[in-house]
Amino acid sequence: MKTTITFAIICFAFIVSAVGQEKYATKTGQIDFEASVPSFEEVKAANSNVSAVLDASTGKFAALALMKGFRFKVALMEEHFNENYIESSKYPRATFKGIIQDFDISEISGKSDYSIKGTFNMHGTDKEMDVPAVISVNGDTVMLTAQFVMQPEDFNIKIPSIVSNKIAEDVNVFVEFSLQKQ
């Protein structure tokens, strides 16, 4: 009898915690970055297999990108990125966990500007960020786009002096998520 009551309480707690949560997710989010400088080869990559989840009832947002998922035009550049700079065998993923400020999905009409405050983790280093984002809703889909700048040194990523003049100090990052209601 005691086991039955305990099981019933656990089931009730699970159901109550799930009620009111509006989850949206994707496994095909897009992150592009560019760190090109004039007169040198383009330093640009894209990853179209980024996972993200949004709890629309709380505004909590999280994203995860596997570092080996970034594709460059030049294979050697991709190899250097993974082996020498990002060290993707040691630091295989980058994550962002945050909260969309003043988020209320029911009040979104058209494209709306928001701020996402959270922690970005890459190369074993955390950095608090405030990312401006544009969010729109179309039926069961939430579109989230953002653009921001980051610096490799903020994440203890060392750029060798021999190539430092060929890579921009500021890396432009573009993200796009089409999150589907779960």
Question: Helix and strand layout, with pairings?
Answer:
Blueprint: H1 2-18, E1 23-34, E2 44-55, E3 60-66, E4 71-72, H2 75-85, E5 93-100, E6 112-122, E7 125-138, E8 141-150, E9 171-181
Antiparallel strand pairs: 1-2, 1-9, 2-3, 2-4, 3-5, 5-6, 6-7, 7-8, 8-9
Radius of gyration: 20 Å
Total tally of structural domains? 1
Assign the CATH topology: Lipocalin
Order of helices and strands: HEEEEHEEEEE
Q: Mind telling me which CATH architecture this is?
A: Beta Barrel
Bin the strand percentage. over 45%
Shape: elongated
Characterize the structure shown:
- Keywords: Signal.
- InterPro entries: Lipid/polyisoprenoid-bd_YceI (IPR007372), TTHA0802/YceI-like_sf (IPR036761).
- This is YceI family protein.
- With 182 residues, this protein is an alpha+beta fold.
- The chain has one domain: Lipid/polyisoprenoid-binding, YceI-like (Lipocalin, Beta Barrel), CATH 2.40.128.110.
- Helix content is 15%, strand content 48%.
- It has two helices and nine strands, in the order H-E-E-E-E-H-E-E-E-E-E.
- Strands 1-2-3-5-6-7-8-9 form an eight-stranded antiparallel beta barrel.
- About 5% of the residues have low confidence.
